[in-house]
Amino acid sequence: IIKDSAESVMIADDFHVIKEVNVLPSPCPDVGAELINHFSDQERQRSEKLLSSYVPHPVLAAINAGKYSLLGELRQVTILFVNLPDFRYETEQQAEKNQEAFLEIQRVLSRFDGNLRQLIQDDKGTVAIIAFGLPYSSHEDDPMRGVLASMVTFRALSQMGMRCGVGVTTGDAYCGSVGNEIRCEYAIVGD
């Protein structure tokens, strides 16, 4: 299978160690551009509205301002970590309760102009990572907004019967695009 596209050394019967691969990667087709060309104006507007809810606010604001490439920058941000140990996905009722709690977190973010960076789950549970001070939504009082948002989130989730732990930190972080035109994301990287 590989003899025409790689150099290998046979070290045992039917066992080769590949030394070098001679196949150039094929370019990835721009499927999104192909699809969008087939949409009517109404379908395109509906799709843009739907997809915009998946795009982080700083990225959407930059695109709407005509800045199509987000240059990275080092800036002060406040990060709020919300640990959600009660988030389980074993029953429909748990999933619905999780959604209610997440909607409450989103209401708090809207109130204090925070941005959800990600919601992750691992062996330690679910954690929401929220950022304050990103481009197009930064304020002089972002550290205070982060602290207030943590207090309001804690109170709201506790009233819903959900346990949570919160942590807030402020410091310099790289904020910007990572990746290339095929796949990229807006990243926040700091200590």
Explain briefly what this protein structure is.
With 191 residues, the chain is an alpha+beta fold. The protein has five helices and seven strands.
Quote the distance from N terminus to C terminus.
46 Å
Sheet bearing the most strands, described? 5 strands, antiparallel
The shape, in one word, is extended
Unreliably modeled segments = none
Record the strand order, biggest sheet.
4-5-3-6-7
Question: What would you say this structure looks like, in words?
Answer:
The chain is an alpha+beta fold and 191 residues long. The protein is built from 5 helices and 7 strands, in the order E-E-H-H-H-E-H-E-E-H-E-E. The chain has helices at 31-36, 41-52, 57-64, 92-112, 142-159; strands spanning 6-12, 15-21, 73-84, 115-122, 125-132, 165-179, 184-190. Strands 4-5-3-6-7 form a 5-stranded antiparallel beta sheet. The protein has a two-stranded antiparallel sheet with strand order 1-2. A hairpin with a 4-residue loop joins strand 6 (165-179) and strand 7. Helix 4 runs antiparallel to helix 5 (142-159). The chain starts with 5 loop residues before the first strand and ends with a strand.
SSE topology:
Layout lengths: L5 E7 L2 E7 L9 H6 L4 H12 L4 H8 L8 E12 L7 H21 L2 E8 L2 E8 L9 H18 L5 E15 L4 E7 L1
Antiparallel strand pairs: 1-2, 3-5, 3-6, 4-5, 6-7
Task: Label this structure with key terms.
191 residues; alpha+beta; extended; two-stranded antiparallel ribbon; 5 helices; 5-stranded antiparallel β-sheet
